[in-house]
Design goal:
Elements (H helix, E strand, L loop, with lengths): L4 H12 L5 H10 L9 H15 L16 H14 L2 H15 L3 E6 L8 E6 L4 E3 L14 E3 L5 H7 L4 H8 L3
Antiparallel strand pairs: 1-2, 3-4
Helix pairs in contact: 3-5, 6-7
């Protein structure tokens, strides 16, 4: 992949008000000038995010044929319940904010391994954890040959998740 992550990180820094490089800060400090930044990017993006939150509407399941018309209301109620319990609105809003700030935002939907909880999990995934086939043409990258989601976890969490492989995980964590 080309280096798109550096400009994305810089764009996020501009949103946060960190717009001066270390060299410019050193020159300003040498002159005795304060490093004042008038952040015009942050409030603009915050305004768009506020509009997104204000105009958000519930997703709705609808039937595309007569056979599905009877079951669509039941599926719609189940979907709304799971959407609410998984806090999916927050994950989608976080991904939308990442799209505005850095140009890319991901949401991950997975099955929940805990049988006594909601059957699905919906969460925002940071751009530093995702790689994909750069030659994919679709916006959602669905035509790509591969996608990679990489995440660091603590050693005890990895062992608890994969107890049968405790020896291998312990050896790998010690650089084998």
């Amino acid at each position: 992949q080309p280096d798109w992550r550096s400009p994305a990180t810089k764009a996020c820094q501009y949103y946060d008000g960190d717009q001066l490089s270390a060299a410019v800060r050193a020159v300003l400090q040498e002159r005795g000038q304060p490093d004042i930044v008038h952040n015009m990017i942050g409030p603009t993006i915050d305004g768009v995010l506020g509009m997104e939150a204000r105009t958000r509407s519930d997703l709705m399941v609808s039937a595309d044929d007569e056979q599905g018309e009877d079951i669509a209301p039941a599926i719609n109620e189940k979907f709304k319940d799971i959407w609410r319990l998984t806090n999916a609105d927050r994950a989608c809003s976080d991904a939308y904010a990442a799209q505005l700030k850095a140009g890319l935002g991901w949401v991950e939907v997975t099955r929940n391994p805990h049988p006594m909880q909601v059957p699905y999990r919906v969460k925002f995934v940071h751009r530093r954890n995702v790689w994909w086939d750069w030659y994919a043409q679709d916006i959602d990258k669905s035509d790509g040959r591969w996608k990679l989601y990489k995440r660091w976890i603590d050693l005890d969490e990895a062992i608890a998740t994969f107890p049968d492989h405790e020896d291998i995980i312990t050896q790998m964590s010690n650089c084998w």
